[in-house]
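pasting for ref
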Amino acid sequence: MTARRSSRALALILLCASAAAQAAPDEAAFRRSIGLRRAWQDLTRDVAWPARWTPDGRRFSYRKTVAGGFAFETVDAKTLAKSPAFDTAKLAAALGDARHDAVDPMHLPFAEFDYVEDGKAIAFSLDETRWQCGIVVYRCEAAVDRSRPRGFGVVRDMAVPADNSPKVSPDGKWTAFVQGDNLVVRKSGDAVVVPLSVDGSAGDFYDPETLRWSPDSRHIMIYRVKPGYQRRVLRVESSPRDQLQPELQSQLYPKPGDAIDQERPVLFDVATRRQTVIDDALFANPYELSAPRWRGDGRSVAFDYVRRGFGQARVIAVEADTGVAHAAVTEDAKTFVYADRRYAHEVGADGREIVWASERDGWNHLYLIDGRTGAVKTGLRPGTGWCATWSLSTTPSARSCLRRAG
């Protein structure tokens, strides 16, 4: 009896081994598996990706599925007339020439883009690199990032010089830059430098990469920075692209509890040379401040604030003439604010209304916030005025929204 059971077990094992050997995938099966996503994706039609608006709010563009791949369309928001966003064949050829690689015009390697240079070019991200391609004269080139690297965005790498390219005022009359850790300006065509600050130092410097002119060329906001702890960790790159042997890499790597860069916004009146350090009572203990962004009317400037520990996020607005700050939006959380998924859009050019995404009631909804008081004006929820994409127009029509594009 025992011998029979052993024989049956052995036969079963051999049968399973034979079946497994016969079912082992070959190279063709692996290739079919790798291409499965594209094969299935190309079966859909008119599935649209999220739309992106032009800066003037008059048009929006999106990618959608078509027979054999993807198409990019641009829509006139007023007439709803559709047109190709660009010539995909010419763009594929130009991008292929720049990357020294073949590019399929029906499968361009990006899903979103922005019009730049007054619509004469588009910009998009590819392999962690920003690319720009002309669509009048089709030519592509990778953008060179001259900004100083930051560890997790919160500690500047002080071993790398900051991008101190002179910033010309919107009216073209002034040029601003940092000299000896201080902010200076000079009139266009004049060699005489006018200092706006004298209190900068290597340990508390004015960061030229944060310099922002107001639209009316009257004011500048810039961050004064105390550098954080320059902690570095070592890692081994096992397979470098340019050599066979492993390579040791050093990386700026702030750890929990480390001192991070302390940024303090400072406002300057160019004509009077008045310097105003913004009171940080509303953004104390910051983990991160966004770059300053001026409102279209030039009367105020705003920036985003995330408190260290992620218990609070705010939009801070600063009046240009007085330097007084107020919280345009405040988001508090008992657990944490998901900072990487923040969404805010200012309706109009004066910051009086802000569309804000929040999970304050347990679900992620859009709220219309009074930008002067921080109070909720209305909730924009599915079925009650919720919108997927807001126009970036600075006109009153910006209160309209895009529900679907296809």
